[in-house]
Automatic annotation (TrEMBL):
Keywords, in A-Z order: ATP-binding, Nucleotide-binding, Phosphoprotein
Protein name per Swiss-Prot or TrEMBL: histidine kinase
SMART domains, per the entry: HATPase_c (SM00387), HisKA (SM00388), REC (SM00448)
Response regulatory domain boundaries: 16-133
Upper classification of the organism: Bacteria, Pseudomonadati, Pseudomonadota, Betaproteobacteria, Burkholderiales
Source organism of this protein record: Pelomonas baiyunensis
Amino acid sequence: MTASAMPVMPGADDVQLLIVDDLAENRLALSALVQEEGVCVHTAASGEAALDLLLQHEFALALLDVQMPEMSGFELAELIRGSSRTAHLPIVFVTASDRGAACSFRGYDNGAVDVLYKPLDPQAVRSKVRVFTELHRNSRLLRRQLVAVEAAHARQELLLAELQATQDALQRALRMRDEFMSLVSHELRTPLGVMTLDHSARRDRLARGDLAHFTPERLQAMAARDARQLRSMTRLIDDMLDTSRIQHGRLSIAPRPTDLGELARHVADDLAGLFGTVPLDVQATDGVAGCWDDARIAQVLANLLANALRHGQGRPVAVQVSWAADGRARLAVQDQGEGVPAADQQRIFEAFERGAASGPGLGLGLFISRHFVHAHGGEIRLHSTAGQGACFEVLLPTSPPAVAG
Ligand SMILES: Nc1ncnc2c1ncn2[C@@H]1O[C@H](COP(=O)(O)OP(=O)(O)O)[C@@H](O)[C@H]1O
Ligand SMILES: [Mg+2]
């Protein structure tokens, strides 16, 4: 039992035909009849050999001799119909029997079965086979077109999703711009309002010649109040400039030898006025020093302290300066206030992100602080349980990583 007797070199797009006949001369004759450009003929001398070939190729048509020893053409056709891979393969029986013989094959009903009677009429054979090869070519073309259409469709879906994402981002940006404008105006309005009121009160007194009002103490208090309002406006503008620098990758630091404990005490002293009666305790291990941009680190601490004061519900705030176990310097600000819910703990470090009830502010403090700390090769961590205070921990390597370039 030998499989394919013909030398078969199928081209990639050739339509494959299968001829099964136990007699070599029949195989040759039929092959010669159906052979043409774009068609590749495989032959098998038995049903078993044919099943082998069916596993290897995708055929457009099988021409089966009905009378064969061992496995008849009908039996082979049953097997072909029974396998899902080949169930739809068109089958043409070749028989010398009387007309109607093929009707005894049960699979005849499904329409993909035809019969050729011996002696074969070359013309009829060729045109019948051509119908099937054309059918096969067309359905293959359709399948390819379907695949192409599906791919194009998938690409389109992808583009659509991208478009949607861009549109969402744009809308978010527009919304943020509007919110930002109203937020900034509001933030500037407050200190400006206080200064404007102060200014007109002073002007009125001066206009009335009420110079007695301007005692040294009052002048000092006025100057202090003015300084506070100016500081808050300057802070706001600086925060916006820093944010813009960060967002454009233009943040730079100027590290120099710095004692972290000293720096913490200075910042705490500067902010003491803000704290009023709220206890602020600074505990610093001696000699926690490194190479840092003192102004930036001071700003980080000032941000953390301002937050601790704002959210600390009037309870004591503690600042700690020490060495962490891994050799990094550690600066921690601990309050006993409302804390930060787990769901907010990542978000509040993003630009313009604020908690639910956060009072005034642009939501830039933690964003800027984190970037300042990152620029030093350090990290900022938050430990908090809602309702039980928050501890912001800054960890700094003793010197910042070398900047490329
Ligand atoms: N110590 C803290 N306790 C509770 N919540 C805090 C604390 N620090 C920061 N937050 C939350 O993080 C948000 C972002 O803080 P921040 O970036 O400093 O912006 P802002 O102070 O302008 O709101 C705050 O609005 C607040 O909800
Ligand atoms: Mg803040």
